[in-house]
Design brief:
Helix content: 25-40%
Strand content: 15-25%
CATH architecture of the largest domain: Sandwich
Number of strands: 10
Number of helices: 5
Organism: Haloarcula pellucida
Strand order of the largest sheet: 3-2-1-5-8
Bound molecules: copper (II) ion
GO molecular function, one term: oxidoreductase activity
GO cellular component, one term: membrane
Number of domains: 2
CATH topology of the largest domain: Immunoglobulin-like
Radius of gyration: 28 Å
Structural class: alpha+beta
Protein name: Cytochrome oxidase subunit II copper A binding domain-containing protein
CATH superfamily of the largest domain: Cupredoxins -  blue copper proteins
CATH class of the largest domain: Mainly Beta
Distance between the termini: 28 Å
Keywords: Copper, Electron transport, Membrane, Metal-binding, Respiratory chain, Transmembrane, Transmembrane helix, Transport
Order of helices and strands: HHHEEEEEEEEEEHH
Shape: elongated
């Protein structure tokens, strides 16, 4: 239904640079878990060591024998603050854990769904995996073995396969999508830095699986536009040659 609505009706065109990249979302999830995990670890280990040292037995004697009442094995400890400590630590832990789950879940849902507003300048590329390579097909029909995209634009991928199960991924840009024959998997990304990245296959698909790679070129927007204008729907052909050379027959 969404694609039938004219762009003007959807809303203001969205500049890709304003969209939070999946790579940034994954990086912040990693950082938050690393910092919180380290903090909890340091706290627990320090607290444990502190008490182990403070209440240790010295030379067979118990210096705290008359100061603390030690529970014996199997007996519930008595005294203390009447469970207030336990109540607060459980309460605070629950609040932290529940908000962490909510935040992580909504961040991942954002990556899963993609930017909801379709921008005028979004780029959609069909990605077709085959034994052993990748073909990138642009809206004007141009087919290439290198994925060229402009920086700071939302790039939407429609991933499928011509033969067996593959999986398309660009690790540095944190994109990964199943390539399944007869099905299309949607994925998206934005890249803020120009340069050459590498796309790889992440589903063991045969003898050439490990060489099933493709260059991904992130270009300045004006450079991309003049390159795209010059393609005129031509076939690059190199991907078909690759397929033919290993005996594959692209559909
Ligand atoms: Cu593969």
């Amino acid at each position: 239904m969404g694609h039938m609505v004219p762009h003007a009706a959807i809303g203001v065109p969205l500049h890709g640079g304003d969209v939070r990249a999946p790579a940034d979302v994954f990086n912040s999830i990693f950082e938050v878990f690393l910092v919180l995990g380290t903090a909890v670890g340091v706290l627990v280990v320090t607290y444990t060591l502190y008490h182990a040292i403070k209440y240790r037995e010295t030379a067979g004697e118990d210096p705290y024998a008359d100061k603390v009442e030690r529970p014996s094995m199997g007996e519930m400890p008595t005294g203390g603050s009447g469970g207030r400590k336990v109540f607060y630590s459980f309460g605070i832990s629950a609040i932290i854990v529940v908000s962490l789950i909510a935040w992580t879940y909504s961040s991942l849902a954002y990556v899963e769904d993609g930017p909801q507003i379709a921008g005028e300048e979004d780029i959609t590329v069909q990605v077709e995996g085959f034994r052993f390579g990748w073909a990138f097909i642009y809206p004007n029909g141009h087919e290439a073995s290198t994925l060229k995209v402009p920086r700071n634009r939302v790039v939407r991928l429609e991933v499928t396969s011509r033969d067996v199960f593959h999986n398309f991924g660009i690790p540095e840009l944190r994109v990964k999508a199943d390539a399944i024959p007869g099905q299309t998997t949607d994925a998206w990304f934005t890249a803020s830095e120009t340069g050459t990245y590498q796309a790889k296959c992440y589903e063991l698909c045969g003898s050439g699986h490990s060489v099933m790679v493709a260059p991904v070129e992130v270009m300045p927007q004006d450079e991309y536009q003049s390159w795209y204008a010059g393609t005129n729907g031509t076939q690059n052909g190199s991907s078909n040659q690759t397929a033919a050379s290993v005996g594959g027959a692209p559909a």
